[in-house]
Design goal:
It holds the Pfam family HTH_5. The protein has 7 helices and 2 strands, in the order H-H-H-H-E-E-H-H-H. The chain is mainly alpha-helical. The chain has one domain: Winged helix-like DNA-binding domain superfamily/Winged helix DNA-binding domain (Arc Repressor Mutant, subunit A, Orthogonal Bundle). A hairpin with a 2-residue loop joins strand 1 and strand 2. Helix 2 packs across helix 4 and helix 3 packs across helix 4. 31% of the residues are buried.
């Protein structure tokens, strides 16, 4: 039951749902997520950590960037099921649609140098 609760609690926050929906459309670093949602870097990092602990996202370092993307669900059947369904859910939600339209314009290379350092240092 703990694995189920981790997944459902991770999805109980609107910003974490938004992060997952964005990651379904684009691999992103923490500074891009921060820019898209208009939240502080520590807040974005905490959300990413919670999603990763629930088995909903994974990350990998590529050069100075730590890229986040949806998990494959192999570690949790609950995460796998919700990730599969979430791919179709909320696509017609106005707020989600607006975020999805916005993310191609958010480019890590164009975010200030300070934020690049935060991306590298934060681990998220």
């Amino acid at each position: 039951m703990n694995d189920f609760l981790k997944v459902t609690k991770a999805l109980s926050d609107p910003n974490r749902v938004k992060i997952l929906k964005m990651l379904q459309h684009k691999v992103m670093c923490v500074c891009e997520i921060e820019a898209a949602l208009g939240i502080a870097q520590p807040t974005a990092s905490k959300h990413l950590k919670r999603l990763e602990e629930a088995g909903l996202i994974d990350s990998r370092r590529e050069g100075k960037w730590i890229n986040h993307y949806p998990a494959d669900g192999k570690d949790s059947p609950y995460a796998a099921t919700l990730l599969g369904n979430l791919r179709h859910w909320l696509e017609d939600d106005a707020e989600i649609r607006q975020l999805i339209e916005k993310i191609p314009c958010i480019r890590r290379e164009e975010i200030s140098c300070h934020k690049e350092e935060v991306c590298e240092e934060s681990g998220y």
